[in-house]
Structure formats: C-alpha cells, structure tokens
Amino acid sequence: MLLLVLLSFVGCSVCAHELVAPGTLASRGGGGGGGGGGGWGVVDEWPIGFFIAGSSLAGVDGLYVRPPSGEPMDAPALPHRCGMRWANVDAPGWSVLGDVHGRDDGGGHAVVGSKGVEWLLVDERGRDRFGSEGGFYLPSAGDDWEHLHRPFAALRAGDRVAARLADGGAGDGEVLEVLRGGAAVRWRRDGAEGSGEVCAARELRLERASPPGPDEGGAADDAEQLPWQVVAIMSRAKMEELLADKRRHDAQVRQALLGGAGAGRAAGLLAGTGGASEGEEGAVCDALLAPARDLLASGQAAAAVAALELVLVADRGCPMLEKWLVRAHARAMHAAHDAGACAPVHEGVCAGDEVRFPADVPGFWSAGDGATVIGLGTPGAPIALRTHSGKLVDTQPSHFSPPRPKLLPGAAAADHYTVLGLGHDFTPKELKKAWRVASLKLHPDKGGDPKAFDRAAAAHAVLSDDAARAEYDSAADLPQRQATFSLADEVRRRYFPERRGFQAFGDPHERRKQRAARDRERRRAEQEAAKEAAARRAERIEAAGHDEL
Predict the structure, then answer these.
(1) This prediction's pTM
(2) What CA–CA distance (Å, rounded) separates 77 from 58?
C-alpha cells in the first residue's frame, strides 16, 4: 500500500513541515507536486526522528532520534546493513532501523514485504522484535508491523566469525570485545597474536552464535505490543519542542509522586487519621475521603475536588479515590454547565471553548481549522481537543488561538443530587422519599415554583434510571464530553500520570479503536444478514409445506 502526503500548496516537500501523521507512507522520489494547479508531494529525506506510542512492551514507546554526528548509522548490536538508525532517548538500546537489507550471515531470512528492504524495531539485546515493509522514508503503524522470530545473533565476545572487510580482506577469527553498543567489534584472526583489530560489525559474518540467554525467547506474540502510533518528526525545532514536552511530562510525574505543594497539608490530613497499621488501610482511606464526601453531599463539588486532591497527596493508593475524583469533577461540570459557567482546564481556557489553529500541522489540522476544548488540564500539561473533523489530539495552549472571553456568573447551579438532597450512596427508598418531599413542596398546584418543580423532576428522572445516572456521574451527557474517551480517562491522565506514558499526539490507540468499531459493525451487519436469510428460508419452507397440503 502506497500512501502519498497531500499538500495544501504547490511545489512543497512534506519535509518542509514538522510532522507527518501516524502511519503515513511516502515513496522515495522528488520533492513537491510540481507545477500546475496543485498536486502531491513526497517525503524526500529521512526524518529527524519518530514518536512511537501505544505498545505494551517496555522500551518501545518514546522519542527516537538520530545518533549524534560521527556515530555509526548502522545497527547498534546486529550486523544489519541499513540506511539509517534512530535511538530511543529513554530506553537505551531500542532502535528503529530504516532500509534494512536482508542479511547473509549464514542464517539469513526473508525481509518483511516485497521491496527487498524492511523497517525494524530492535530491542536492547539486539533482537529484531518487529518488522514492516520498507522502501519508504516513513514506516507504517499498528498491525502493518509484525512480530519477528529470528535467531538472536548479536555479536558477543567468544563468537566465531568470518570477516569480509571493506578493504577487500577476509579471514576467520574470534570476537574479543564488542564496542560502541555493538556497532563495532575488536576481533583476532586465527593464528594471529596481539590485541586484535577493530572493524564495523556489519563486516563480520557470524559462524556460530553464543548460547541463547534465558529470556531470549521473548514474550508471546500480542497485538498490544505493536507500535500503534508512529509520527515522523521532520524538523529539529519540532523534535526539541517534543523533548521539552517530554521533560515537562516527566516532571509532572515526579511532582505527582512526591506530592507537590500540597504535601504539607496532606501530611496533616493523614496525621489526623491516626496513621495506619496492617489491615487498617481501608479504614484510613475511608477517613481521608470523609471530608470530600461531606462536601459533595452538601453540593460543594469544587471544594470536594480540592479535598480529594489533598487525599491524592496523602495516599494516592486509596482504592476509591479515582472513582470519587470522577464523581466530584462530573458534578462540578454539571453545576457549571447548568449555570452557564466556565469549567476551567487551563488558565483562560474552559471545557467547551471553541479555539482555532493558526498554523498547519499536516495530518492533524490546517491553519484556520477549529476545535473544541474537552480535556482536563494542569499547568504545563497538554490539553485535550476534538477538532471539527472529529480527530482527538493533545496539544499545548501555544498551538491554538485563545478563545473569546466569557462572562462568568458568580455562582454555579445545583446538580441533580443537591436538588433532591441526596448523597451518592442513596437507596431507592431514600430517592422515593426525596422526590415525594420535593414534589409536594414544589408542585405548581401546591403553590410551588414551576421551574423549580421541573428541575426536581429532571433530577428524579435521571437518578431513577441506572443508565442515565451512570452517564450523569461520568459527565458523558454534557455536550463537551461527547468524546471517544471518558472523564475517567482524563482523571487518570491528570492525577495519575505515572499510569500512562508520554502521549504527545492524543490517544495512541485511536486507529485501533476505530478499526475495532468497524469490525464490530461489520460483524453486527453479518449477523443481521444471517438472521434475515434464516427467516426467509423458514418462510420458504413454511410456504412449501402449505403448498403440499
């Protein structure tokens, strides 16, 4: 499959841009679309680096950059012949290799695809872990990659090798030392003396591999391990920006784990519980949550959020904490929405705001495109947006124009629970009683306010319906929450950043989820078609029976 990158202007190379969308492929060739009234452009040089995400395998995800000038471009641990190498900045040893030719080291294997070259993801041991078809300046993503089961043949001290040197020399010998992460070796020819000679690893052909290590079989194949998001970084400025974003993310994780500015107040909160001994953790967690639950029961959702954030610092392992954070944020969002207020996600940016992008980022948005703010945010963290084309992205506020100022009311409206005076753990009997009291007090026939009665009736309708209540509790019913990821996902991203990796371009599994949704729809359609066909057969059989009678 050959995908070309459509340009928004004539005669421009894709490499003039900073990013190329996940999974986009471009063949080698000239630069732009040529003359005339528009056209196609192709990537005409190797990217500066890649951003890879979505793999469950440790070491795969992250930013990959070219080695510094002067270091070898070939594979770090295997005698591949390749056009370019990119190294993971956070997982030493993991590399992306482009234009890898088939090896002829005596245990050769066919390359992936039909182009004669392949893309490889190589792990820290030098094993070929994943491969996809080559012949392009950009790799693909997701299940266009495949698991590889190739003999592990990293050169190691003691290996027997046959040399075919660049100067035309040849000979057999033994590896004495592996240098520069495996890109070069010191070896000694048979019959020679001294400390040996140094050559590039690719000039040696392995004759007998060292015995495999205990973990070299690798984990069982799993689609979760594949690189589901691959974004090419086409400029050094964009790479530096992403590296800075990554450092901010890492700092956010460290701050979250250490407790940040609220650590002192949280320590006092924890001390108030009397500490915890073995077997009492659940009781301590309940005691920490009690003030927030009380605030929520009295309709003070914003204050409850603040109280829960202190609990997060005191004991982020509290089992019910994430659930209560979702509830508190959902109720704060409902109260703000009902009152027309702002639910802030960043300084000057609110959930539901409409923003615009002033500059192109190919594959993600064009200059002038609009988007809706949907994500929770913290200082320095990316903000979740849904573009008007439906794409979900995480980006920094500097990438979009600020929204128009809003007139914010002084107070938020009451949410459903507060309207009926109920806590989150109400019983059906308590709901029935609360509705009876409210209806007698507010019914227009009893002299009550019609608007207040309608508000109480709406609250009762939602809280008495399990499905509607679940949507309400997760804020899924709000216009700005119509997204493919939930409020719970956002709460995890904001408060538990250590649970997710650095996601510079939104959900790395978006493509996979879309494909799964299409597959489910296809299976549903096939099942419906099968049922209809069975019904028609039954009708024909029944009709045939009547004809015989």
Answers:
(1) 0.58
(2) 19
